[in-house]
Amino acid sequence: xxxxxxxxxxxxxxxxxxxxxxxxxxxxxxxxxxxxxxxxxxxxxxxxxxxxxxxxxxxxxxxxxxxxxxxxxxxxxxxxxxxxxxxxxxxxxxxxxxxxxxxxxxxxxxxxxxxxxxxxxxxxxxxxxxxxxxxxxxxxxxxxxxxxxxxxxxxxxxxxxxxxxxxxxxxxxxxxxxxxxxxxxxxxxxxxxxxxxxxxxxxxxxxxxxxxxxxxxxxxxxxxxxxxxxxxxxxxxxxxxxxxxxxxxxxxxxxxxxxxxxxx
Length: 264
Known about the structure:
alpha+beta, three-stranded antiparallel sheet, 10 helices, 8 strands
């Protein structure tokens, strides 16, 4: 795989997604033209929409495709997402990807392999005072080995405790909030994530958006928009995205509240 191909693909997808959530344009060309205008007006960066078209189609839409994008252009596109450089964008992207990968398996297996009884030690340490109890115990162990057809050298014979499986708690998004579950949950309808007590306590989807006003929402409430559907949340999360559809979360504005919060 070409160097940074996955990161470049993610960058282009994020830029396009952010633009599509901010503009009323619905066509691909309309959205890429919005990207061109925003880069020029807000960042004084010149990048034609045709160039972005070529990057996106070559890297995102083509299977195993790639395109040699200059470092400066990658930096410019990263600024569209609020990062100073492409390296800064990749740094956070890797962190997120690692955290997702890290939560796939949270089953910890602790093998307690410490011998509780070794036969040679038993005979050496108990010679002086080995009584009837010791003889019976040793005879029982050896007899059991012979009966099982597996008589082994005493130096290799140990009595061990069984493995202990400890399962950590995870969380999943149920559509309105995060719920705690076992990391061993095999339900195919949920996506397990590493547990985060802050998100469980504070990150909720607002089901009654008609209660929002500029007075109680500005600076406190976040929203996502995808396919002209807007959802509101009590705060943002560590990924900065809607857990259901991946749309980017942004602080609400008066215009968003007026246009979507009270929409029936």
